[in-house]
Design a protein that fits this description.
The complex is a heterotetramer, with 1 copy of chain A, 2 copies of chain B and 1 copy of chain C.
Chain A lengths: L21 E10 L2 E11 L4 E6 L5 H8 L10 E4 L2 E2 L6 H6 L2 E4 L11 H5 L1 H6 L7 H14 L15 H21 L5 E5 L7 H16 L3 E5 L3 H7 L2 E6 L2 E7 L5 H9 L19 E7 L6 E5 L4 E6 L8 H6 L6 E6 L2 E4 L5 H6 L2 E4 L3 H5 L6 H6 L7 E2 L2 E2 L1 H14 L16 H13 L5 E5 L7 H16 L3 E5 L3 H7 L2 E6 L2 E7 L5 H9 L8 H8 L1
Parallel strand pairs in A: 3-8, 3-9, 6-7, 7-8, 13-20, 13-21, 16-19, 19-20
Antiparallel strand pairs in A: 1-2, 1-4, 4-5, 9-10, 11-12, 11-14, 14-15, 17-18, 21-22
Chain B lengths: L1 H7 L4 H31 L1 H4 L1 H9 L2 H15 L7 H18 L4 H26 L3 H20 L4 E2 L3 H7 L9 H19 L1 H11 L1 H6 L4 H27 L1 E2 L8 H11 L10 H21 L5 H24 L10
Antiparallel strand pairs in B: 1-2
Helix pairs in contact in B: 2-15, 2-16, 5-10, 5-11, 5-13, 5-14, 5-15, 6-7, 6-8, 6-13, 7-8, 7-13, 9-13, 10-11, 10-15, 11-13, 14-15, 15-16
Chain C lengths: L11 H23 L20 E5 L6 H16 L3 E4 L6 H13 L4 E4 L7 H9 L4 E4 L14 E3 L3 H15 L5 E6 L6 H15 L4 E6 L5 H15 L5 E4 L5 H10 L7 E5 L3 H9 L3 E7 L1 H16 L12 E5 L19 H10 L5
Parallel strand pairs in C: 1-2, 1-3, 3-4, 4-5, 6-7, 6-8, 8-9, 9-10
Antiparallel strand pairs in C: 10-11
Helix pairs in contact in C: 1-5, 2-10, 3-4, 5-6, 7-8, 10-11
Classes of the chains: A alpha/beta, B mainly alpha, C alpha/beta.
Bound molecules: adenosine-5'-triphosphate (2 copies) and magnesium ion (MG) (2 copies).
The site of one magnesium ion has 4 residues of chain A, from helix 1.
């Protein structure tokens, strides 16, 4: 380990004059045989915003779930909040009583219930009354939502909301819960586990304003993110976890990204630069007149070897495009040409897309991408089954060999085929998902938030996988709200507004700032699709 | 974004959606009404007679009590296949203690309720402490309860339950309808209130939809599921008392025949009033919808094979219709059910 | 012996006369059956000592009914007296269990099988038993008038049709020839169709003005459907004054329906089997006014008579059965409280059979 | 990270885990063995006799065929409560056509299988085209099928099915065990192969675990579910033929009694060999485990109430044990889903 340990601020501040907001000592957590957290100690002062970073699977969410009382830590742990030592084991209710409020990574919403039902879920268990009043709840929820100008109907089912709206609901719920506890005396600790993955940059301001207001009231914030720049920007100090062990805490001022990466990964990471723009060819994909739930009359073309980004604001419809082009959009219309084949979207099914060489890597890994309870091999095999026939059954030996090679190539950790997919960390889940599709040598790769919640090291690996796919001649479409990712990965970026493509950025023009400007719509004229393609060539 | 959404809504949409939502909520009521009209036309005065409606309303209290109690664990996602076993234990306990051991009827009833609560606690304990899926554990305990009933009763039918109980259950009619009907309606009202207006009911709903989330929100998931199974057993216990009162007797086997109708009523009920959610009034409507059809057929003197045909057909068709209207306006997310 | 003389109501003028005659005939048959039945030897005597040491297998329809338990008791008692080794194969009414029981009996090389389960569902197994030369004696499932299954060595018959006739006789007699009868059948049970037919035929022959309707409720649905079916039938035809559930184990549901319809005073129930709880109902006052059936113990002895004949190499009888007795509110008190229908019979048949078998001295 | 994890593993741990995994896979086999030993000690030679085992193995083919067919839709997440209805339709069709209409037995059997396939197609169509949850739609169609059986048979038992069929089913024993047993085992082998080694089987598994994923992965989810329900009906149809052959007859009601044992076998089977996954050999073991216990009790001449007690108790205990061993080594597998 070549790490410069001097940089690290000692975590043990036992002689701190006043009790810190949160004091954690010696927290370990073991699942079965794997130790996920090892003797983690942590102090957060009142008024402090603390970042928590680490690779996928380094234990951040686990630590947070320990704080939430969801997991019991191994014996020997001590947790105290504002000097109040937690006696016995921490329960979810106890945590809330202590003033800890959470936005969990998976948002913790029930899609089939209404926004206002979901809003009340945390209050339920602690409720002192025995009854609830749905009407009053709906009213107060609506008031709250309006207060933040979200324009969400409190009586709508969460399933009818977009991912972004769902994130906003979860955040507003947490903030409301926090206010509640503030009303009981003192501001507590707000814990945000990757709250921004669903939010485009522009909408994150609201969240950070709220967090800042909270800290200035004397509360504390613990903020988990894989976006190191954002983390450096909004936090006072950053704690780094690696392999479940505390690597140290550094002040955000005067630290740069590279330092943190070194702490996280334990080595220097070569962040790749943009690859050269591929030469223009006849398009592989030609879509005309696409219409979906939020997409209106969009046409676009993708060339072989080209990585095209598509982005926009919440509700602009950019995140629907990959699904439309794969044939998974329901009630969609439009025409699609993939190579020689022509499709009418109204009658196209995903299987048609797959036969035409389209691979879709959905953004919602858990719901649309994988089966958590089955093994990595099972999940890898989904797309390979028809090709792995021997005699008249599936040749599992061959699948296994291929799978072993795939997870080695894609650096999936742990490199075991038989572990349950669900126990992998997010980054590794994503790599498995990509591996599953890449083994089919797709001609068209459609990605939706391919690095959502993925750590910086894994992100580079995923970029490499995508680039390798493009280099092999595939056309890539990457829908993402992550402007940095787009600027690093894409040869061309399309920006959508109100369901239509309004701008196209090429090569050197692609930058976070430019994307943000176009997304917000600083009065640029929409570019007709024909001229766009022409501009590329 | 919301702006755009509102902008894009064609003016016709809301009306269409409203009709859809309405038919989704009250579709079964309409089918019921049609059924009543059809039978009235065919059979005229007999079907519309007070006596017929008294008989329709008065005859299904046991089923209604069972179904309404079952709603609670079902809301928490737990199938309870042992309710009919508990029904049998309860009615047998009443009859045995009252007739063979000479206990006063109130004591026998109290013991029956207690026995039912114990049975529910056993179900709850197996589910909560051993983590066995309730579908399979209650399948098992249902069989155990059946064994217990055979053992208790020595496989005999026991008659001669004190007429006092019958008086409370089927005597002293109000508007010509026996008290048991009002007990069933009362139970519906309670369950409706509990599910809609109490913290407990709301918690059960969350537990049923997402257990880890509920745990994270601080709900005592295990305790809630335990309670749910105890409550369904409690309701089955009351149903058992009503059953014993209705027939003045208890026999070891007949309680089993309520199992499928109970589940049918619960699922069919989940297509009315609050679509996709188990709800009490929907269940009540489902029960009386089914019995109206069957009674109508009986009055027609239809062959006995027509009854199961109607029962199954009505179930499938009304659920399909409600599903259909739901599909039209919402891109269905998850739905009721298991795992 | 309760077949009434057949008659025709050819001319309308004769009809009222014949109707009165029918009522009288019905009443006579009923009165005769209300008396304590007496034992008469069913057939020639023989020496049952040859059966000693043989092994008999008993497979009941389902062990979860008191009838079976009582029959089993009688069988065991006789078996012990005759030094026959009796094995009981308990079942819960599933055909796979019966199949397995016969297979087991064959594999254990039993000397005879007493079959309480339906031979209809066991034809291949009976053929197998016949091939293995194991005689099968079927217990209490056939009336002599019914078509009999193959591969059965002997039957202990059940007087289903005479009982059904008595039920109709009761309806005629109790309503003085103006019975409007509701017959509740369970057609999946073997005796149900011939019994229903017999009720109908007896009504037609003794009472031209009487009418009858049938409602079929499967035994499995008695708990959940019987009450509403009966209530609906009563609504449909308010003139119904006698309900005949063919099997008395469903009486409590019929009673509940009649009570719920507010007709406890005007509608009476006549039924078959003499199950103790139904006699209880009758004694305590309920719409059940008549129950006809047999002594279960007697059935056991009758069955054992056939078994011992078969085991001893004697030709089995063709009309072996226990006699019927009718209980009505008039004579039901003889069964005591709680009801024990064995009390309604003189025990002379016990000694009678023992003597028939030559086992009295031992 | 993987390195450190392996390094830190205490030497005893893996053994413990391996025992856990082993008991999870073969726990039920051990309980079965214990049961056999206990009965052998109590009853000695009779229980251990070849004849007894021939009878145990030969007696459960109908149940086994039903359960093994049910595995397919269950794997795709679809409960099929109508299998016993199809069983009844099939056996009644054989008996009716053969006995009353005088069709040759092969034609009657073919018609029965055809009728079963139609019934399965009806189930599938309702589920796929109307989006009705199969638990409720097959509850309904099960009732419809029962009505059809009553109608076909006029509620009568039909006897006298051609002995040819019986010869194929229970005659011509191999090793003293009737052919029906080998049909059951054959069906197990086929289902095992299909679920493990065919694309169809794997697709069913994914459909059962995650429908949106399956759709995006190009599977024809609707068609697969449809096929699953047709297959379970097909198996139930064969079971019906075997049933008619075993008993030489068909009656309208007895098929219903297979419903709960079938589900019990399927769920219990999912605790063996491949824990938490419906699997064919596990189901076979579950069936014969339960029948061993019941046969042992019958040979003992135990009171009849002991049978349901044993059945339910064995079910609950063995599932609880398998659950327990699973829990020990993996900290609760639930995770916060998005739904
Ligand atoms: N319930 C569990 N059982 C077994 N292993 C688990 C469980 N929960 C988490 N893990 C493992 O613990 C490790 C840490 O997970 P954790 O969720 O804390 O990571 P993380 O730091 O939040 O990662 P990410 O950045 O991807 O969110 C991972 O390797 C994961 O596989
Ligand atoms: N109960 C559990 N059992 C098994 N694995 C679990 C469990 N809970 C979490 N995990 C796994 O542990 C890993 C970390 O958990 P978590 O839910 O925090 O995701 P994550 O790693 O943080 O994802 P991301 O990469 O998006 O940040 C995930 O891969 C998850 O699948
Ligand atoms: Mg995490
Ligand atoms: Mg994460």
């Amino acid at each position: 380990m070549t790490l410069d340990d001097q940089q690290i601020v000692p975590e043990d501040r036992q002689d701190a004059p006043e009790p810190s907001m949160l004091r954690v000592r010696n927290v370990s957590k073991t699942f079965g045989e794997t130790r996920v957290l090892r003797e983690v100690s942590l102090d957060i002062a009142a008024g402090e915003t603390r970042g928590l970073v680490g690779e996928n699977g380094s234990g951040k969410s686990t630590l947070i779930k320990v704080l939430a009382g969801f997991y019991q830590p191994d014996p020997g742990a001590e947790i105290s909040v504002r000097g109040r030592q937690v006696a016995g084991s921490l329960t979810p209710l106890g945590a809330r009583d202590l003033g800890l409020t959470f936005v969990h990574q998976d948002l913790a919403l029930v899609p089939s219930l209404t926004v206002s039902d979901n809003m009340t879920v945390n209050a339920l268990a602690a409720s002192r009354s025995w009854r609830v009043s749905p009407k009053a709840e709906a009213r107060s929820t609506q008031k709250l939502l309006d207060e933040y100008g979200l324009g969400i109907d409190a009586r709508a089912a969460v399933s009818s909301l977009t991912q972004l709206e769902r994130a906003m609901v979860a955040i507003v719920r947490a903030i409301d819960g926090m206010r509640e506890s503030a009303a009981h005396g003192q501001a507590g600790l707000l814990v945000l586990d990757e709250p921004t993955v669903f939010l485009p940059k522009a909408d994150r301001g609201l969240l950070f304003d709220l967090a800042r207001r909270h800290t200035s009231d004397g509360g504390g914030v613990l903020f988990v993110s894989h976006d190191l720049e954002e983390c450096l920007e909004v936090t006072d100090s950053i704690t780094v976890l690696r392999d479940g062990r505390l690597r140290g805490t550094v002040p955000s001022k005067g630290t740069d990204r590279a330092d943190i990466i070194r702490l996280m990964v334990g080595k220097e990471l070569n962040l790749s630069s943009r690859r050269p723009t591929p030469p223009a060819h006849l398009p592989v994909v030609r879509a005309t007149g696409l219409n979906g739930t939020s997409v209106r009359d969009v046409s676009l073309e993708l060339g072989p070897g080209e990585i095209v980004g598509i982005t926009g604001l919440l509700g602009s419809g950019f995140d629907e495009l990959p699904y439309l082009i794969s044939g998974a959009g329901q009630g969609a219309t439009g025409r699609l040409a993939v190579g020689e084949r022509e499709f009418d979207l109204a009658s196209m099914r995903p299987v048609d897309g797959i036969r035409a060489g389209i691979a879709l890597v959905p953004g919602d890994r858990a719901r649309q991408g994988s089966v958590a309870s089955l093994s990595v091999l099972d999940n890898l095999s989904v797309q390979a089954l028809p090709t792995a026939r021997a005699w008249f059954g599936i040749d599992w030996r061959r699948l296994r060999t291929v799978g072993q090679r795939l997870i080695a190539t894609y650096d999936v950790r742990p490199q075991k085929l038989d572990v349950a997919y669900g126990t992998l960390s997010g980054g590794n889940q994503q790599k498995v998902l990509l591996a599953r599709w890449m083994q089919t040598n797709p001609g068209v790769i459609l990605l939706h938030e391919p690095t959502q919640g993925v750590d910086i090291g894994a992100r580079e690996q995923i970029f490499d996988i995508v680039r390798a796919g493009a280099d092999a001649g595939a056309a890539v479409l990457c829908a993402s709200a992550d402007q940095e990712q787009l600027s690093l990965l894409c040869d061309r970026v399309l920006v959508m507004r109100d369901g239509a493509i309004v701008a196209e950025l090429l090569g050197g023009d692609i930058s976070k700032a430019a994307i943000a400007r176009e997304s917000l719509g600083s009065a640029r004229q929409s570019v007709p699709p024909a001229s766009r393609r022409a501009a590329t060539s | 974004m919301t702006d755009t959404a509102t902008k894009r809504t064609p003016s016709l949409r809301p009306t269409g959606a409203r009709v859809g939502a309405w038919s989704e909520k009250y579709g079964l009521l309409v089918i019921w009404a049609v059924l009543i009209v059809v039978f009235s036309v065919i059979e005229g005065p007999i079907f519309l007679s007070l006596a017929n409606w008294q008989s329709i309303l008065g005859s299904q209290s046991v089923l209604l009590l069972l179904a309404v109690g079952l709603l609670i664990p079902m809301t928490a996602g737990d199938y309870d296949l042992s309710v009919t076993g508990v029904l049998g234990i309860s009615s047998m306990t009443v009859a045995l203690l009252n007739v063979q051991f000479g206990w006063p009827i109130w004591a026998a009833v109290a013991a029956a309720i207690l026995a039912s609560l114990l049975a529910g606690a056993l179900n709850g304990a197996i589910v909560v402490f051993f983590g066995v899926d309730p579908f399979i554990s209650t399948l098992g305990t249902g069989s155990v309860f059946l064994g217990v009933i055979y053992w208790m009763s020595n496989s005999n039918t026991i008659t001669g339950v004190s007429p006092e109980l019958s008086a409370w259950v089927v005597g002293g009619k109000i508007l010509g309808i026996p008290p048991a009907f009002y007990y069933g309606v009362g139970a519906c009202a309670i369950v409706w209130f509990v599910l809609k207006y109490t913290v407990f009911g709301r918690q059960m709903l969350f537990v049923g939809r997402n257990k880890p989330l509920s745990r994270l929100a601080g709900m005592a998931v295990g305790r809630l599921r335990f309670l749910g199974l105890v409550i369904s057993a409690f309701a089955a216990g009351i149903a058992g008392v009503v059953y014993a009162g209705t027939t003045g007797s208890a026999d070891p086997t007949s309680s089993q025949s309520f199992l499928l109708p109970t589940f049918a009523a619960v699922f069919l009920g989940a297509t009315v009033i609050q679509n996709q959610r188990f709800n009490a009034w929907g269940t009540l409507i489902a029960v009386y919808f089914l019995v109206t059809g069957i009674t109508g057929l009986q009055l027609l003197g239809a062959d006995s094979f027509v009854q199961p045909l109607f029962f199954g057909g009505a179930l499938v068709v009304s659920v399909a219709l409600s599903q259909f209207s739901r599909r039209r306006d919402a891109a269905g997310s998850e739905r009721l059910g298991h795992g | 012996g309760c077949s009434s003389p057949s008659h025709s109501s050819s001319s309308p003028s004769a009809s009222s006369q014949s109707s009165a005659a029918g009522v009288a005939a019905a009443q006579a048959a009923l009165t005769k059956a209300e008396a304590v039945p007496s034992y008469t030897a069913p057939g020639p005597a023989f020496d049952a000592a040859k059966a000693a040491g043989k092994h008999v297998f008993y497979i009941p329809q389902t062990s979860n009914v008191p009838f079976v338990v009582a029959v089993q008791k009688a069988l065991s008692k006789v078996a012990a007296t005759a030094h026959v080794d009796l094995t009981v194969w308990p079942t819960t009414g599933k055909s796979t269990e019966w199949v397995q029981g016969i297979e087991t009996a064959i594999s254990q090389k039993a000397d005879a099988i007493i079959l309480g389960a339906s031979p209809d569902a066991l034809a291949p197994q009976l053929a197998e038993a016949a091939a293995a030369k194991i005689p099968v004696i079927v217990l209490h499932q056939y009336d002599t008038s019914m078509t009999l299954p193959a591969n059965v060595k002997a039957f202990a018959f059940a007087p289903f049709v005479p009982a059904a006739k008595l039920l109709a006789d009761y309806a005629v007699a109790s309503t003085k020839g103006s019975a409007d009868v509701l017959v509740i059948t369970s057609n999946e049970l073997k005796p149900s169709p011939p019994m229903a037919a017999a009720v109908s035929a007896e009504l037609t022959s003794t009472c031209p003005k009487c009418t009858d309707t049938e409602v079929n409720v499967a035994a499995a649905d008695w708990g959940s459907k019987m009450q509403s079916s009966v209530q609906a039938a009563l609504l449909r035809d308010p003139k119904i004054n006698v309900v005949i559930p063919l099997f008395d184990s469903s009486s409590q549901f019929v009673t509940a329906a009649i009570t719920a319809a507010g007709k406890a005073d005007s509608v009476s129930i006549a039924t078959f089997n003499n199950t103790p709880f139904v006699l209880d109902l009758m004694q305590k006052g309920s719409p059940v006014k008549m129950d006809v059936g047999e002594s279960i113990n007697w059935i056991g002895y009758a069955a054992m008579d056939q078994v011992l004949r078969v085991l001893s190499g004697v030709k089995p009888l063709t009309n072996e059965s226990a006699p019927l007795r009718v209980f009505t509110t008039k004579n039901v008190s003889v069964v005591g409280s709680p009801s024990d229908n064995e009390k309604g019979y003189s025990t002379s048949y016990v000694n009678g059979y023992l003597k028939l078998w030559g086992l009295t001295s031992k």
